Amino acid sequence: MRAKFTAVIRAEEGGYVASTPDLDIASQGSSPEEALANLREAVELFLETASPEEVKGRLSEDAWITQFETDYAPA
Question: Coil, strand or helix: which one is 73?
Answer without folding.
Answer: coil
